[in-house]
Amino acid sequence: MIFSSVVPLFILSVLVFCPLIHAQQLYEGKATTNCSNTGDSVLGYSCNGLNRTCQAYLTFRSQPPYNTVASISTLLNSDPSQLSAINSVSEAASFDTNKLVLVPVNCSCSGNYSQANTSYVVQAEDSPFLIANNTYQGLSNCQAVQDQNRRQTTDIFAGEKLNIPLRCACPTKNQTGVGIKYLLSYLVTWGDTVSAVSVKFGGDTGRSLEANGLSEQNAVIYPFTTLLIPLENPPSSTQTISPPPPPASPPPPSSPSPNSKKSSDKTWVYVVVGVLGGIALITVLGIIIFFAMFRKNKNRSDPITVPESVEAIEKPVKKKLDEESQDFLESIFSIAQSIKVYSFKELQTATDNFSPSCWISGSVYRGLINGDYAAIKKVNGDVTKEIELLNKINHFNLVRLSGVCFREGNWYLVYDYAAKGPLSDWIYSANNDGKFLNWTQRVQIALDVATGLNYLHNFTSPSHVHKDIKSSNVLLDSNFRAKIANLAKARSAEFALTRHIVGTKGYMAPEYLEHGLVSTKLDVYAFGVVMLEIVSGKEVAALYTQENMNLSDVLNDVLSKEDGQEILRKFIDPSMQGNYPLELTVLVMRLIDSCLNKNPADRPSMDEITESLSRILTTSLNWESSNISGYQFSRSS
Ligand SMILES: *[C@@H]1O[C@H](CO)[C@@H](O)[C@H](O)[C@H]1NC(C)=O
Ligand SMILES: *[C@@H]1O[C@H](CO)[C@@H](O)[C@H](O)[C@H]1NC(C)=O
Ligand SMILES: *[C@@H]1O[C@H](CO)[C@@H](O)[C@H](O)[C@H]1NC(C)=O
Ligand SMILES: *[C@@H]1O[C@H](CO)[C@@H](O)[C@H](O)[C@H]1NC(C)=O
Ligand SMILES: *[C@@H]1O[C@H](CO)[C@@H](O)[C@H](O)[C@H]1NC(C)=O
Ligand SMILES: *[C@@H]1O[C@H](CO)[C@@H](O)[C@H](O)[C@H]1NC(C)=O
Ligand SMILES: *[C@@H]1O[C@H](CO)[C@@H](O)[C@H](O)[C@H]1NC(C)=O
Question: Among residues 109, 133, 351, 533, which is most buried (max CB within 10 A)?
Fold first, then answer.
């Protein structure tokens, strides 16, 4: 639309995507749960083991009707006596629902894929996806089922017998060389991390990452997919007990970044004070809490307002929660395997009794726990929503909650420490104290934020909307990788209307401000604003006052004029000194423009944005490496 006069000037060559090729097996992530994705690599683990057959192990979560030794052995073609032995139960035993069951199988090469065969009789209403994802819980996938039975999605019939390939693999030469004897195909569930799963089975996180073609920077795993855990010894039933018994102190939260200690320069962590406790009016729970509160606190203000400061409405929520929070805290033991419950004493020690020297900002302190920095935020409102959500999600691009503590009506939330602080500190060229991000770092950060939001929108159940995306809620770790913080306002996307407007001026989508319409497109709009800030180096508020018009008009102005290229150069953050590929800034501007569409339906989805940005990043990296050897792109002069 408005770029039509500019874009033809910058026709881009085909963007190339470089796949990872060094992995032992590739973790395919959500591709294995997308039936229309039929790449070879999603059909199974490649047959690269030292031996063509081997003993392998699967995990399975007991679900009626597959909740007995007999039914699970039949479903997965395992030997019932071996299965009962490894789980330390009798052959007649049945398991509690959701109990993690170990399943020994014979894994072997079939064509190019490593798999354990089993067979399944199709039932009414079945589809390859339902069979693979729901019945087999992700141990197989629809593409492989279709491929090996030479069937299309539609033509399977109740009563017919299908061959189901289960995802397993044999150790490679390299793995055998370091003592690995078995690979466990672990079924990922909500809240899992590669390190937590590895530790659970006595494996090594580094080897697990390597075995799946993942890296510490990119260790995102999705529910209903398999993760290979290399093991030196067979897994045992003691490793599948969950939750860990409360009296024993749970293992410390795994340290996110070993070099966070080194960066003791003037670093900041910033977790924005903004927990909106107890006002989850848009959820059923919220309504219940609200009415309970209303009876106890007559002086509670009417929440149908646009609060400038959320702290004002946090306080009245406190009392009622004392009892409920205590219950909730106890229930954390059973629901939150990755969240540690700290005693107040531990936090006092970590923060030198909350001394001013440990103060970061607002009610956030820096603490030293087991040799790693953590950000500790004191909150006196209802945080159960945030904790429940953060416990369920597990994503490199969302700040991780590693622990909680409850004392005298106050919650203390312990987060991973983000060494480089908020993005806003780095991009607002008016006040960034000489801090500087280059073009590629900016694109990577935008992609990180998009990836985190994509996860929140499409891979949490139910889908969530962050509702307060802004540059100060994006934190940077020591490698300048971005993590989205402050999920206090995040809400399920299922409740589509609210009269309670929360968020930050300038980032809020028009349909939300005007009609209280909540959808994931709200975050897309705010993300567009953040990208605009990243590219222009200006705070959105400054853009507003300076131009005195809405953002689409700002963009329009910058790019639709005759001398668009010159105006664009002036618009882009001067601190980059013209050192960026102009063609790509135009692509980014187009993306921003589409995100800021007045009509939410016309905005792209986070999925599409992630795809565009990853192509832009690839091209940026190529540009950067060719730029080092000689300036290919002219600098503005
Ligand atoms: C095995 O190890 C060698 C040397 O460390 C490495 O070059 C090779 O890529 C590895 N192979 C696999 C499949 O990981
Ligand atoms: C599924 O895969 C197809 C083909 O690769 C792709 O076009 C589509 O966007 C994917 N869907 C999702 C939800 O990822
Ligand atoms: C797996 O292989 C071993 C040895 O070949 C055999 O004894 C066992 O019965 C096999 N298990 C199954 C479930 O086929
Ligand atoms: C195995 O992979 C090779 C190379 O990718 C291919 O040529 C061959 O057709 C594949 N075999 C089967 C059975 O799919
Ligand atoms: C597993 O099934 C595939 C496809 O039906 C077949 O080619 C292969 O021989 C089977 N493998 C074993 C060990 O039975
Ligand atoms: C996949 O299966 C799991 C249970 O294994 C279920 O909870 C989930 O909703 C399924 N996913 C979809 C997209 O149906
Ligand atoms: C590979 O096969 C040999 C011979 O059967 C066996 O001794 C060895 O343990 C196997 N290695 C693995 C990793 O399964």
Answer: 533
